[in-house]
Amino acid sequence: QPQRHSTLPDMVAPATEAASAEADAGKAPPRRVGVRLIVFDFDQTLSCAHVFYALSGRGTSGRGLVVPAPYAVSELGQLCRVDELSKGKFKDKGGFAQLAFGGAARVEQVQQTLQALRDADVELMVCSKGLVGPINYCLEALDMRGHFASVYARTADAYGSTEYDAKAVLPEELKRFMGVPSQDIWKSKERLMRNLMAERGLRREQAVLVEDDPQEIASAGPVCLTVFVSEAAGMQRQHCDELIRLATRPHTEVANRCDTAAGGLFRKGCAIC
After folding, report:
1. Alpha-carbon span 103 to 183, nearest angstrom
2. Which residue of 62, 75, 93, 99 has the fewest C-beta atoms within 10 A of its own C-beta?
């Protein structure tokens, strides 16, 4: 299972010879700059389609993903259904996960973005109102799961069950994707961001929530930086590029660009506010 609150390599850069020399001369070594933590929503942010809605048969599923009955709303049931679809109806299209993420080209774009962020020593997490099991399945199927230190989402029967859920039997090889209670204890994304930042000693300009829901953006705005996926159809090139810039720019420059977000507001068309 994804480890909760696990951290990537030390958040303070190893001292270089130049930094050591400055320290010996009575000067403090340079501080690490840029964003250090990014938390991604899953449905229609990392993915293009709304995976939970697609599997539950509720409302629209998002771009290019139509799932036939039977439908599932429990973690176990949705996990079984994703596996069935990947091995059956969607096998010749690269599997359920690839379809949900918009196809092979977009999958590669997201993979490259996640790798670039990890290379910049940014800790990555997922926080979703969806279910841990199918999220883990999709991330692993697309070779993305290893980039994330933690996945926070709902577990078990948080949304009830259907007839399919009640009859579904989880194959042994899928049990590793199921969530644990500690991944489902968060009350809101804004509160989770506060807690994660406090644990890591991060300032507002060092953490980012990436989200397609404007209400979540507004709520988290006073706490951290935000990247708004305004079309609710998955991160596009401009969002990926902005995240990489945030991870590599000095924090003072980032903070100056995002002053309007301090009140929980965001400008339409501005990816980082």
Report:
1. 28
2. 93
Helix (H) or strand (E) segment spanning residue 39: strand 37-40
User: Which residue type is seen at 236?
Assistant: Q
Query: Which DSSP symbol is given to 209?
Result: E
Residue 172's region, left for phi above 0, alpha for psi from -120 to 50, else beta, is alpha
CA angle 265, 269, 273 (to 5 degrees): 35
Q: DSSP secondary-structure letter at 23?
A: H
Give all strands of the β-sheet with 207-211 in edge-to-edge order.
148-154, 123-131, 37-40, 207-211, 225-228
Determine if the pTM surpasses 0.85: no
Q: Which of 240, 1, 273, 30 is nearest to 122 (CA)?
A: 240
Distance CA 184, CA 156 (A): 10
What are the pLDDT digits (tens) for 171-203? 999 999 999 999 999 999 999 999 999 999 999
Q: What is the tens place of the pLDDT at every residue in 93-128? A: 999 999 999 999 999 999 999 999 999 999 999 999
| Alpha-carbon dihedral sign for residues 223, 139, 241, 250 | positive
